[in-house]
Fold:
Amino acid sequence: MFLYYILAAVAGAALALAIYILASRAASKGRADAIIEKANLEAESIKQQKILQAKEKFLQLKGEHENFVNKKNGELRDRENNIKSREGQLKEQANELNRRQHDLDSQKGQVNALKTKLDAKLEECERVTAQVNKELENIAGMTAEEARKMLVENMKAEARTEAQAYINDTMDEARLNAAKEAKRIVINTIQRTATETAIENAVTTFPIENDEVKGRIIGREGRNIRALEAATGVEIVVDDTPDAILLSAFDPVRREVARLSLHQLVIDGRIHPARIEEVVAKVSKQLEDEILETGKRTCIDMGIHGLNLELVKLIGRMKYRSSYGQNLLQHSREVANICAIMASELGLNPKIARRAGLLHDIGKVSDVDPELPHAILGAKLAEQYKERPEICNAVGAHHEEMEMTSIYAPLVLVGDAISGARPGARREVIESYIKRLKGMEDLAASYPGVTKSYAIQAGRELRVIVGAEEVSDEQAARLSTDIAQRIQDEMTYPGQVKITVIRETRSVAIAK
Structure:
């Protein structure tokens, strides 16, 4: 019974589920039909819209195409009209050319007729000319060819005479004008050049504070002052002059080394022979750097670039050299400016002229091959350091010791003469004095074993330093006598010259 109820319940549930499913399918089919109908309506609407848009686009493209076709048709009509117009013009030109051709043909016939008449006239003229020439030959007694040659020769002689006279007049006028122009340029150059009177002397005054400093400079038994004189080659005069010591030497570089060394020693306070040698060596190195800096500064001031470093050093050394009492660097700068001004007046390159003027005396400060004249030596140095050929020739020819091949050589020669000839520029006495002292030093240095030689006390004493290993005491005594005899025989000098030969032995050891 219980099972029957269960089966009845299951059957009822299955029947209810079947009824539900059938009802759901019927409802879904109705909704689907409604959706399909709605979709069909929307599709029809979209179709109608697209058809309308396509028609509008077609009409638009059709209008644009018609406009384009009309435009092209208009351009073709314009071109056709232009072509027709050109055809008309060409027809008119062709007609004009045909007319001109007809005129030329008719003129050609007239020209031929005139030519025939002219030929006949020429033949008649030639016949008459020949008859006249024959009569003239009979009258003159010579042929026409002979008369022609005579006439040509007479005309040549007359032309030569007139040409020579014209050449002479032109050359005289050129010489006169050249002399006037040269004077004008030189005078103008001198007026535009600012000059200074710079006379070198052989004494430098070193100021000191009190006599105590003098005593420290002299040292015990004069050992400090002797060491300083031996290291610098300068005579140090300590006399009753208040607050001053005199440094005497003909070489300005030595005096400058001595002055700077004394200045450092006095400031430092330690003054003894070893310290003196150390300071002198240091100052000498500093002076070399200052010489290089002076050369560079001079080149910058003069607007000269690209010089070899060795040439720059030689220019710096000019600051410490004089020529007949005139400072060599100041003289070279002056010559460079004079050459540049004259080159500008003559239409030449002032930079090349200024460069040649600045380098013209570098042979005076070089230690290479001192036997050569300084101009020739300067030219060799300029050539060695790759200067231009015209500059090398201008340097070597400024004393006419080589042939002038450069247009700038006469400018350097004249500039050197102008700078040296102005009043107060030079003093020949100081130059001969320096040459005499230099000759003494060179004479002593020519002996074997001599390491240094210094002319001091205005040339009244010559101090010769020899190597202790190479020269003995007896040889040192003979050396002083030999040098004195040679000076007496070979040199001219006022008064007496004292020769002092210094030989010392030093032993150095280092404790580590």
